[in-house]
Amino acid sequence: MIKIKLPDGSVKEYESGVLVGDVTKDISMGLFRAAVGAVVNGEVKGFAEPIEEDSDFRVVKFEDKEGKEIFWHTSSHVMAAAIKEMYPETKFAIGPAIDDGFYYDMDLEHRFTPEDLEKIEKKMLEIAKRDLKLERVEISRAEALEKFKEEGQDYKVELIEDLPEDEKITLYKMGDAFTDLCRGPHLLSTKAIKAVKLKTIAGAYWRGDSDRQMLQRIYGISFEKAKQLEEYEELQKEIEKRDHRKIGREMNLFTFHEEGPGFPFFHPNGMILMNELLGWWTDVLNENGYGEIKTPLILNEDLWHRSGHWDHYKENMYFTKIDGEAYAIKPMNCPGSVLTYASNQHSYRDLPIRLAEYGQVHRHELSGTLHGLFRVRTFTQDDAHVYCLPSQIKEEVYRMIDLADLLYSTFGFKYTIELSTRPDDFMGDIKDWDFAEEQLKKALEERGIDYEINPGDGAFYGPKIDFHLLDAAKREWQCGTIQLDFQLPQNFDLTYIDENGEKQRPVMLHRALLGSIERFIGVLTEHFAGRFPLWLNPQQVEIIPVSDKFIDYCEDLKEKIKEAGFRVNIDYRSEGVGYKIRQAQLMRTNYMLVVGEKEENSGKLTVRNRDGEETADVSVDEFIEKISEERDTRSMENIF
Q1: Which of 153, 381, 392, 539 is catalytic?
Q2: Packing angle between helix 114-129 and helix 65-86, nearest 10 degrees?
Q3: In whole angstroms, what is the distance from residue 294 CA to residue 297 CA?
Q4: Annotated catalytic residue: which of 363, 399, 558, 588?
């Protein structure tokens, strides 16, 4: 018997044979999972996951992260089946689920067009309606090689050849339509897929290597119901309105130029935004015991070998020669902080030592991956490194979590937390890793903080806590990170003197909560759709004279508002008032003051906010007093 836990908490028992065909208790967990979902939910649109190996299960729905992954992974196979029917000569590479749908990389002479995507969508829905069952098949490496060589699927052959000689290979057959090299799991049947949208066509080098074949990649997304697709498309329209690249141009914040692809140019308005953000954050760090440092942009190559970054980042680094010696432009700030700590001998009484740096780093990114401020080749990291005793780890992690909460709540972000554990290419001793992971778990659990495990996604030098923000458009962004590191202190022989006069090794915590400052500004821009809170906005108040004869009064008004510490501008252009208001709204200016004879004679203002709402008969002193309150409390709401 197999026990299944249903969403309402009740438990039902099923004979294993009920699940699918001749399924037995020793079936692979991948097919077990999909099969149980089919039985529990009636239709093939739910999934189940083992709770324990004794065959208890919990139901996973489409709304769940794993449910979407299974659904979208199956959809990528359906897309491949559709393309195979339409273009039999296609050679298939990989087709995974991603955070926002799925994609498949393919090699064929025909160049896909937007019109092709519509035809493929129709074919996918036709295949889905056939109710094709997905069957997991386990074969030997030799059998798999023979099969895919015979079919001319060179990319599959290469993937298999990279596996060990004795590796068992799993395939997933989708009726007679498509068979793929795949670990699974999948839906039991294609029937659950009711709505499909193929989004874009892109180029992608095979295995990310620019010296290899350029493949065609089609991105898509799918749903259980047509209504879900409609809601998704409405959300995409909203996201398009929030595009930070478009808003950045409109508000004169930043631009990009062909002379420096991937290198953002910040304009005066953009620098006001950045300086306001960093000015506030620097005050917060000062209050929390951080000292600010600045380390060189270029350091010699030997340093990066010692730090371990050479083995993990050299493909993304830029290099130069100085006096005939090899140097690298830093991709990370950590080694510079380490050298700063090591420049003095420290006592246990000095610890923890908290060093913060707004450090500019450079990383070589492929041109096809660049995307506004979200993916650039140079950015400023709000790094901090804390050197502490092992007994101080939890308390320092608590302090960092509190800082993160202050930061994200200030901008109205909700967030979730992941604990990322040891990756395959880890550096150092497993015992240190186990201790580090346990310390981070205890810090989270003793605080009663909910978190998910993200296995194998830690940094190469230590496990980490990652913060995932949810913005106003319901998108998730990985921003902040807290990382525990035993490796760099060892590699650079960092020490402190303990209470017995002996040298001991400190623990190092890495912390970046804004993350890339440029990227965070991009996220903020889209989160607020450019409608920044008053304290942060580059353009806070716009004075609009009805005609030139009121300019003297406008200039006196400007000086009073400016003396109160606000950014205020007068629109001197010989344009109509309506035009000037629209321009100020395009700049997302918080408040507009239209000044004419009435305002000059009465000394009272009519205050217009960027939503077009007006408040009449406001004295100048009252206006300044109220917007000062809005600014100083960092309110996200208009006070007028």
Answers
A1: 381
A2: 110
A3: 9
A4: 363
Residue in 182, 334, 388, 479 annotated catalytic: 334
User: What is the tens place of the pLDDT at every residue in 269-280?
Assistant: 999 999 999 999
Q: Where are the alpha helices (DSSP H) in 88-178?
A: 114-129, 141-150, 154-161
pLDDT at 49: 41
CB 184 within 8 A of CB 30: yes
Q: How many helices (H) and strands (E) does the chain have?
A: 20, 32
Whole-angstrom distance, CA of residue 285 vs CA of residue 307: 26
CB 492 within 8 A of CB 306: yes
Instruction: Indicate the pLDDT class of residue 66, thresholds 50, 70 and 90.
Output: confident
Judged against a pLDDT cut of 90, whether residue 564 lies above it is answered with yes
Question: Which of the following is catalytic: 385, 519, 558, 608?
Answer: 385
Local confidence band at 3 (pLDDT 50, 70, 90 cut-offs):
low
Q: How many CA atoms lie within 13 A of 444 on its CB side?
A: 21
Is 383 among the residues known to form the active site?
yes
- What's the whole-number mean pLDDT along residues 27-52? 40
381 included as an active-site residue = yes
Judge whether 477 and 359 are in contact, CB under 8 Å.
no
What is the C-alpha separation between 174 and 585, in angstroms, rounded?
A: 54
Task: Reply yes or no on whether the pLDDT at 193 is more than 50.
Answer: yes
Q: Could you say which of 464, 527, 608, 610 is catalytic? A: 464
Question: Which residues neighbour 537 within 8 Å (Cβ) at sequence distance 6 or greater?
Answer: 273, 567, 588, 589, 590
Is the preceding peptide bond at 352 cis, omega within 30 degrees of 0?
A: yes
CB atoms within 10 A of CB 270: 22
Contacts of 259 (CB under 8 A, 6+ apart): none
Catalytic pick from 383, 432, 485, 571?
Answer: 383
DSSP-assigned beta bridge partners for residue 371: 375
When pLDDT is cut at 50, 70 and 90, the band that residue 39 belongs to is very low
Query: Given the structure tokens 């109160």, which residue do they identify?
Result: 564
Q: How far apart are CA 113 and CA 200, in angstroms?
A: 9
In the predicted structure, residue 15 carries a pLDDT above the cut 70: no
* pLDDT at residue 363 tops 80: yes
Q: How far is CA 73 from CA 181, 185, 395, in A?
A: 12, 8, 41
- Cα(307)–Cα(492) distance, integer angstroms: 8
Strand, coil or helix: 498: coil
Write down the pLDDT at residue 4.
Answer: 53
Tokens of 114: 């937007």
Contacting residues for 395 by C-beta, under 8 A, at least 6 apart? none
What pLDDT does residue 422 have? 87
Specify whether 608 is catalytic.
Answer: no
- Tens digit of each residue's pLDDT (9 = 90 or more) over 265-307: 999 999 999 999 999 999 999 999 999 999 999 999 999 999 8
3-state SS, residue 243? coil
User: At 307, which helix (H) or strand (E)?
Assistant: helix 301-307
Active site residue 479: no
Strand partners, 357: 383
107 alpha carbon, distance to own chain's centre:
29
Catalytic residue status for 371 = no
In contact, 506 and 490? CB cutoff 8 Å: no
